[in-house]
Design a protein that fits this description.
By secondary structure, the chain is of the alpha+beta class. It has 5 helices and 12 strands.
């Protein structure tokens, strides 16, 4: 088990850079290595998770250090007062900006559909692929991944909603062995001070290096 990489910390909140492959907290399986345990051990106190981040995703993850702050942060996420920005690499070229308003299933197996909205902005075209910013306005399970599939721009590295042939190409040619989804930024009002709080996490080498190699290939083909 490795320690947590801190992005922000005060007496009420701690923000860490979650690596891909680690769950936020224990689910049905009693796995010992989860972010809640890593952060708890790093700060030496109990911490409260206030939002979700897919196991396969990386990036900004918030925890509260007391129940009152946890409730306030949870309310802010529920009320959509937290701006979330993810970076994603997709197959295909989406519009420059598209607002995807498409209900998704509440859970992985639950057939009930619930409202879900994501704004996707195209940042860079890389041959048959594109780097995009995805800003979810709601917080549904696998929302960004499902919405990218819905607009026929599946996420690279996504074994559930993506395309196997492109996942294999990126694994074999570019050394990408994970989901290309990174929570780059969270913007919110600090629940205790009222001040604006912006927390950012840069792309790690496991995403930055495959992206750089893809850019080199695209430039060489021109």
């Amino acid at each position: 088990m490795t320690s947590a990489a801190f992005l922000f910390r005060d007496e009420w909140i701690v923000a860490v850079d979650k690596p891909s492959g680690v769950a936020v907290h224990r689910g049905w399986a009693a796995e010992p290595d989860v972010m809640l345990a890593r952060v708890r051990d790093a700060v030496g106190a109990y911490v409260y998770p206030v939002h979700r981040l897919d196991r396969g995703a990386s990036g900004v993850l918030l925890f509260a250090l007391d129940p009152e702050t946890a409730r306030a942060l949870g309310d802010a996420f529920t009320a959509q007062r937290v701006h979330k920005r993810y970076l994603a690499l997709v197959r295909g070229v989406p519009p420059e900006r598209v607002r995807i308003d498409h209900p998704v299933k509440k859970g992985e197996r639950d057939g009930e559909r619930v409202p879900a909205v994501t704004v996707v902005e195209r940042l860079e075209v890389l041959g048959r692929y594109a780097l995009v910013a995805a800003c979810p306005e709601t917080g549904r399970l696998h929302q960004i991944r499902r919405h990218l599939k819905h607009i026929s721009c599946p996420l690279i590295g996504d074994v559930r909603y993506g395309k196997g042939e492109h996942n294999r190409l990126f694994r074999d040619r570019y050394g990408l062995h994970r989901l290309f989804l990174h929570a780059e930024e969270l913007r919110l009002e600090h629940p205790r001070t009222g001040e604006p709080l912006v927390v950012r996490a840069p792309l790690g080498p496991d995403l930055a290096e495959p992206l750089a190699r893809l850019r080199e290939d695209v430039a060489a083909a021109r």
